[in-house]
Amino acid sequence: MSIVVNNVSKLYGEQHALDKVSFEVKKGEVVGFLGPNGAGKSTMMKIITCYIPPTEGDVSVCGLDIWNDSLELRKKVGYLSEANPLYYDMYVREFLEFIAGIHKIKDKKKRIDEVIAMTHLELEQHKKIAALSRGYKQRVGLAQALIHDPEVLILDEPTTGLDPNQLVEIRELIKKCGKTKTVLLSTHVMQEVEAMCDRVIIINKGSIVADAKIHELQDAVTSLKKKKDSKELSIEEIFHILTK
Predict the structure, then answer these.
(1) Is residue 53 left, alpha or beta, with left meaning phi > 0 and alpha meaning psi from -120 to 50?
(2) Would you say residue 227 has pLDDT above 60?
(3) 48 close to 36: Cβ distance less than 8 angstroms
(4) What's the pLDDT band for 45 if we cut at 50, 70, 90?
(5) Is the Cβ–Cβ distance between 173 and 121 less than 8 Å?
(6) What sign does the dihedral 5-58-151-33 (CA atoms) show?
(7) Pairing, β 182-186 against β 30-34
(8) Does 90 map to a domain?
């Protein structure tokens, strides 16, 4: 397994942001991590990427433990956070050169050219990040997550701010990455889940309420709602049923 989460809890004071969460993600899977705002998605992603520690529980990524191997683990992970922190005074290419230097990439120019092409930033690469639209800033964030060719991608709202054409391009890029990498992504766009994901994990109030392939979840919830003779439920309808 590329990602193994075992009995993870996170407390902020007396509030359980996560409550004994467990799941696994295999290499080559694109998994949608869904839930309403405040459900614990971003907290879980920050724990997996070693940004914050859990209150209790264990997480391993590519066989590396968050407690004992955090520095080596981070080398295996590409992370696009919800806030997408960027240096706005830097130019796009300058920023990617800076990130490539942090990762000690040997042929920086070649790899930067590759990720710029992958994220379709060719026309924007010599602009200041501050001058970019929200959608292009999101692409820069995705480029920095990909630049060191990580085995695991953790993407928190990767399609935020993208226009319909950009959505198609980034969707195809994420699906392509999923053929060789492990991808865990969160989104509120249910159509994107159906288009990109092999499986969905739904979290509500800090606990997992569903973990299944999309068609399995549709069959189970449709049966539960006794709608066998009607159309199968959409992911959006399933989301509402499990999180209301």
Answers:
(1) beta
(2) no
(3) no
(4) very high
(5) no
(6) positive
(7) parallel
(8) yes
Is 23 a member of any domain? no
Kindly state the tokens that stand for 171. Answer: 């969707």
Instruction: Confirm whether 145 is domain-assigned.
Output: yes
HSE-up of 86 (CA within 13 Å, CB side)?
Answer: 29
**Does the predicted model carry a pTM greater than 0.85?**
yes
Instruction: Let me know if residue 143 belongs to a domain.
Output: yes
Q: Is the dihedral of CA 128, 129, 135, 139 positive or negative?
A: positive
Residues 111-170 have pLDDT tens digits of 999 999 999 999 999 999 999 998 999 999 999 999 999 999 999 999 888 888 888 888
Side-chain-side CA neighbours of 130 within 13 Å: the count stands at 4
Nearest by Cα to 125 from 146, 104, 103, 109: 109
What is the tally of structural domains in the chain?
1
Q: What is the span of the domain harbouring residue 97?
A: 82-149
> Rounded to whole angstroms, how far apart are CA atoms 244 and 232?
19
Predicted pLDDT at 231:
62
